[in-house]
Amino acid sequence: MKYELFYWPSIQGRGEFVRLALEAAGADYVDVAREDMQAMLGLLEDPGLARPPFAPPFLRAGRRIIAQTANILHFLGPRLGLAPESGATRLWLHQLQLTVEDLLVDVHETHHPAGAALYYEDQMPEAKRRALYFTMERGPELLGYFERVLARNTSGRGYMAGRSLTYVDLSMFQIMAGLRYAFPAMMTRLDPSLPGLTALHERVARHPAVAAYLQSDRRIAFNEDGIFRRYPELDG
Question: What is the mean pLDDT of residues 148-172?
């Protein structure tokens, strides 16, 4: 099947978690808005859709349109060989991905705690206060949780769940890469306590399909319009 991914063309954002899964699996897909933004906007506004998505990212697979990052990955995982077809492990992966989504909300709120419609410069005092909470408490807490999950998968050879690469491993790679970009001081402080996640990040980066993607022009660079933004005054 040829998949169509719909997401903003100039940022990694939540769409990157889906891109990584498609790329790692060597799936046949098109990143629609990078070629035709109006096609994405038109689908969002299509009055004929009985089950419309609220916002990107969403995926078209045949006649199906699936939205929400965790939901898309729950759908794609078994089809791409990045999750089992059924059972407790598939549900566990979905649970972990939803926790990844929680972390992304926290990251976004470090620079937009008062509202997404306001510029960062209009909420800097609130952002500094929120970022201090994230870098000193919430970020370490969530990363510590994922580190423990990784350590407890004793049969997994360094994967988050099961014995082979899953979409959650790819998501954790993106989390580590994004946090190292946005919060280098925090990550330098935390790295010694995260040996498993550090090794996982390196392992995923060496995956042949992922490595090729990271070196290609399909990989959008981190920038100050996405979820992970480097504002030195927010790092700690």
Answer: 92
Q: Which of 89, 90, 110, 122 is nearest to 182 (CA)?
A: 110
Average pLDDT on 71-97 reads 96
pLDDT recorded at residue 72:
98
Measured CA to CA, the distance from residue 184 to residue 59 in angstroms comes to 32
Determine the straight-line distance between the first and last CA of the chain, rounded to whole angstroms.
45
The answer to whether 103 touches 72, Cβ cutoff 8 Å, is: no
pLDDT digits (tens, 9 = 90+) for 128-144: 999 999 999 999 999 99
Q: Are 8 and 56 in contact (CB under 8 A)?
A: yes
List of domains in the chain = 3-79 (3.40.30.10), 88-234 (1.20.1050.10)
- Residue 218: strand pairing partners: none
Residue with tokens 């946005």: 182
Please answer whether residues 174 and 197 qualify as being in contact, where contact means their C-beta atoms are separated by less than 8 angstroms.
Answer: no
Q: Rg of the chain's alpha carbons, rounded to an integer?
A: 18
Task: With cut-offs at 50, 70 and 90, classify the pLDDT of residue 1.
Answer: confident
- Torsions phi, psi of 83, nearest 5? -170, 155
Beta bridge partners of 58: 6, 67
Let me know how long the chain is: 236
The whole-angstrom separation of Cα 151 and Cα 207 is 21
